[in-house]
Write a structure and sequence with these properties.
9-stranded mixed β-sheet, single chain, 20% strand, Glycosyl transferase family 2, 10 helices, 284 residues, transferase activity, transferase, alpha/beta, Spore Coat Polysaccharide Biosynthesis Protein SpsA, Chain A
Length: 284
Amino acid sequence: MDYYVVIPIHNEEDFLQKTLDSVLEQTLAPKKVILVNDNSTDNTENIINEYTLKSSVFKKINSISSAQHMPGSKVVNAFNKGLEQLDENYNFIVKLDADLILPSNYFETISNHFKQKKNLGICGGFIYEQKNNGEWVLNHPMDKDHIRGAIKAYSKDCFKAIGGLKNAMGWDTVDELLARYNGFTLHTDDELKVKHLRPTGKAYNAKAKRLQGKAMYSMRYGFIITTIASLKMALKNNSIKSFWNNMVGYINTSKNNNNYLVTEEEGKFIRKLRWTNIKRKIGV
């Protein structure tokens, strides 16, 4: 199968070479990899230039944006800049982070899943992060059928059906909800172990802490589901502050009547799906 990769990159001089090397080592090579240099101020651009000379599969795009590393809008803006450089002659498209090491069979395996599963919309492996003792351990704070935003692969039909990526915090949750709404399935492969070189959220701006609650409002979760989801997140993170920040973010957004990410009909489907999952987990 043919596939494209878009990599948003902001100040990744410490990790980028390992990521690009792992892309070059794939047993199923991409048609094109767009490297979006998103306002980097370190040696990132020089590294990108080295790899565009090393292989014609890489193409560099420079993007000017805020220097603040905010989850959601910054990375999706950069991704969309890269997307503009691509045609539609692909079977699946990948949004990839610039601080990962992929197993060499990663995209060949992803391709096989798309070929074998007719309605598969989004696919990916699992993220592992290194502990202080050197051990690589699974880092997956959500349900096992969730594909992490760092390694999202979309079939073309699914990507078109969901309208691409939403320019907001929560983009990597609403994409899966909208995929299900449009009749697509999700698949995670626990044999695909991806090394994440920088722990999640380490570079995020401090202002980002209440954006999760805003995202839950924008996805039309409603107050009760937001409360349950925030409690679950707080327990997993062992942080009561994350619960507080989520709820404040939700309430502040509801007061300001910010725009929703989904339609009313999509929101109804999302709430029904969330309640079904909640009842399943508590055995109702």
